[in-house]
Description:
Blueprint: H1 2-33, H2 36-48, H3 52-65, H4 71-83, H5 86-102, H6 108-120, H7 124-137, H8 142-155, H9 158-170, H10 176-188, H11 192-205, H12 210-218
Helix pairs in contact: 2-3, 2-4, 3-4, 4-5, 4-6, 5-6, 6-7, 6-8, 7-8, 8-9, 8-10, 9-10, 10-11, 11-12
Amino acid sequence: MTKQLNAVATVLIILVSACSESVALAQTTQQVVTRPADVLKEGRRLIDQRRYEDAISRFKQYCLMRPHESNGYFWSGITYDEMGNYSASEKSYRDALLRAENEGMDSAEIRTNLGNALLKQHKADEAIEEYKKANEVDPMYALAKLNLGRAYIEKGDGASALATLDKCGELHFKGLHIKYYKAKALLLLGRKEEAGSLAKQLIMDLPDGAFKNDVRQEFSSII
């Protein structure tokens, strides 16, 4: 009987010890998850997993923890972009920008992303203003110039688009998208031969895939 009682007592001690470790582990995990930096990191991980609604929840949590910082709003904007909710994305980027400005800072990246959200809503004039401001903040930020060129194309202003895209080349930005948008700008200007030549180069450079097929179809009348 004594041996049986001792065995039972040993089992109980093991169970209590295991439970204590589980509780301690759960408490430690909870502490890690509720730290602002880890909440932000978790949200970004969820974006990579395309769990966008969950990511938004994390970024909202972060914004409650750090209401005066721009990070949570910036990453919310990126997530809403991925979801195709461009009006919500615009609002998030504006909120991020406001907080950056309140801290005496500005951001070419936030302004460029805001411009992109505006352009996707066909608000070309507003997008152009944001891209221009991004260029003022950081004249070396080539993506702002590339997207400014896109916005001019949407407005039908081929001359401004071409001049802006040429500046991307001056910054040694050699993305294939520059050739694509330059060809579109040249086409707007009626310079079909140059546009066709550039489109041919682009098609040769592009890897096989949907984008290459789309480009070939778009410029089929001049190549």
